[in-house]
Amino acid sequence: MLKELLLPEIHELIEQREWSLLRDVLSTWSPAEIADLMLSVPKAERVLLYRALPQDLAHEVFAYLEPDQQINLLHELTDSESRELLAALSPDDRTALLSELPGDVTSRLLALLEPDDLREARWLLGYPEESVGRLMTPDFLALEPGWTVATALEYIRQHGQDRETLNRLYVCDKRQRLLGVVRLRALILADPTTTIAELMEETPRLSAFDDQETAVRVMEKFDLSVLPVVDSNGVLVGIVTFDDVLDVAEKEATEDIQKLGGMEALDISYRATPVSVLIRKRAGWLTALMLSEMLTTTALSVFEKQIEKAVVLVLFLPLVISSGGNSGSQAATLITRALALQEISFRDWWLVLRRELVSGLTLGSILGSLGFLRIELWTLLFGPVYGDHHLLIALTVGVGLIGIVLWGTTIGAMLPLLLYRLGFDPATSSAPFIATLVDVSGIIIYFVTAMLILGGRLL
Amino acid sequence: MLKELLLPEIHELIEQREWSLLRDVLSTWSPAEIADLMLSVPKAERVLLYRALPQDLAHEVFAYLEPDQQINLLHELTDSESRELLAALSPDDRTALLSELPGDVTSRLLALLEPDDLREARWLLGYPEESVGRLMTPDFLALEPGWTVATALEYIRQHGQDRETLNRLYVCDKRQRLLGVVRLRALILADPTTTIAELMEETPRLSAFDDQETAVRVMEKFDLSVLPVVDSNGVLVGIVTFDDVLDVAEKEATEDIQKLGGMEALDISYRATPVSVLIRKRAGWLTALMLSEMLTTTALSVFEKQIEKAVVLVLFLPLVISSGGNSGSQAATLITRALALQEISFRDWWLVLRRELVSGLTLGSILGSLGFLRIELWTLLFGPVYGDHHLLIALTVGVGLIGIVLWGTTIGAMLPLLLYRLGFDPATSSAPFIATLVDVSGIIIYFVTAMLILGGRLL
After folding, report:
1. Which ipTM score applies to this complex?
2. A270: closest chain B residue by CA
3. Are A432 and B333 an interchain contact pair (Cβ–Cβ within 8 Å)?
4. Within chain A, how many helices (H) and strands (E) appear?
5. Do both B31 and B90 map to the same domain?
6. Do A122 and A148 fall within a single domain?
7. Which of A67, B115, B281, B366 is the most exposed place for a label (fewest CB within 10 A)?
8. How far from chain centre, in Å, is Cα A75?
9. CATH code, A345
């Protein structure tokens, strides 16, 4: 963007403490652009830059910062600056901020809020984490069914100035129970004497206790940019807007990807995560995986005699067990994502099992043939590098691969479904986790196959 | 939902061919709900159900079906039914449908379109795949800066009936170049004699040739539910709405997850993908990975003598190399996702490298200590199960683990950055791919460590 060319000049203005000149330049920038700028100045200058901004703009910029940057900035602000800032944030932005803070900082900040805002913040915070209640804003306009279009438009003119969205206006009865929705465009296009009841349409709705993932699915299904949220009595308590939902969708995908990579999900961006946290989030799973992988040592000890007799079997061990891990990781990834997108659920286990058995058998046969051919081809080209029993060894590798790939695929597909059924996150069945599981069982499958085929000859 | 209770009755109505009764019942359902219903009836009945719906509703329902279901249904429709359907679809839905079809079916369908629609469809199809041009709809209203609010509202009343969104109205000069945006709510709240130029705000914009991923980032950054699309001359050519962008965001995440799982991305849902395609999308990568993994056999052959002398080293081989694969898979996943979310770019390689070297060394030391302790603990508990040189073997495993985890982490972090720099998809550096790479090099690191430590004694 053109504005990036201005960065050196901006930095100079900050260094020379030219606050009023800076304010003039920045007043034409959008809040998102200024938030980007704040990230590129040294930490110590951020609060100076923040204070140089016109107050309204400063508050908007704050809403665009990442949670950890918001917290850093908050530490630098005085109590009265914090109070003004908190009062100016929209309710859902305020909730997002407060729920990220350590408990004691939260209470210090809550103490700064005006009674009305305080009630709102406390109330929004009362819903479970990851629930729609945490995402919603109570910042909506409700119309009455008996009003005419003229009355409604007048009401909107008087009360609509600061609302987050006016594209869809909700209609409630006297007890605030949600009846339906009227689109702003319908109001504009209608005759002024029409009643709201005539223009009203049915609307999908969310419960405040629904999982945020539900908001993504419903919004996607009905192509709506805003959804109403009701409590257990059907009373309209808030709205959820598409921008929050888009954030949720991306965040859930990131969490799933990180878990599938075999680690705990980071809560914030890679760049903003300190190295110590990066290590902590990875060490837990790595250690657990290694402890399980120690079973491979136990399994191999069982077959130590066979290994001594036929060291040649060891040459193909990584090849054979990693193929099982790879096919298992494919299956686990497919099923985990399909579950997350609600394309399948637990009751589809039989369908999944049948499909994955067919896939596993086919893929196993392909890889098994490749393994067989590799050994025979090498023997043909380089002589008896794998000994006199090369044909039987090729057979062992081929048959072992079929068994291990079939087994890896089945485990990889069934484990996410099982975790899901038991109420755990299916993304826990990560590629490394499946690979570890299959390594242990793969060793057993491989050596048992070897003993069946080579028993009496090589073993 | 309550409506699921009605399913058996609906099925009975279909079986008894009670079309008019069915039409009455379904006329109160939303298109999305009817689309769900269509999936639950046998294929042969879908076209009957489609024909039973009032025509407008039928067209809306069609837009809610998945691409492959749309194609199946299209095959069953007559030419005149297809023509009516295509004309009724919104331009972006029509483009999505046409670009999914095999070429010959596309031309048959294009031939059915009216000249005006045809021009629109052809024009939308001219943009590269995955570009914003394929996502946009030319279905917007443009205002002129000199108009008053009253004129603008009258214009909207006359022309706004069928537009996809009216929340943000774009302002263009005489040559259709985009000047800015006016929000519908601002029009409602303003005095009727105000001019559009006074209410106009700046707006972020997309180029029709931008990647669709850009639309996700811009929409996320500015919290907008609709964005204008301009050509190289700044002429407004279309708009992109949040529902299409949400689909793109989810689709990109799914593709990345599937690639990270070590397979080609599916284009449609797991459930809708035939088993033959499932196998094909997996077999390619599995085969490639196995062919690379064959290098482990070559590497092990080099060390065959050492293995014969010290079979005990083999017992820890899967443990050691899998730990390298696991730590590499964590790093690759982290960096790939951070690249996709544009949290980092290639020029951050030095930052990433420093952080991952620290992480790799720390994680390697943790796992190395665990490996060392495992061997000494077993020796303490069960006697000299790993021979007289158990301390040196424990040292080999410990030091080998540090080296291999450090190496895995570094490769896992750098490879996605390199792929990204070279213009490939970083998600190609999947967990299985990294594991395979690290397996081969891990064997070399492990045995070289063993020769250095055990040389002269056991080896």
Report:
1. 0.71
2. B338
3. no
4. 23, 6
5. yes
6. no
7. B115
8. 28
9. 1.10.357.20
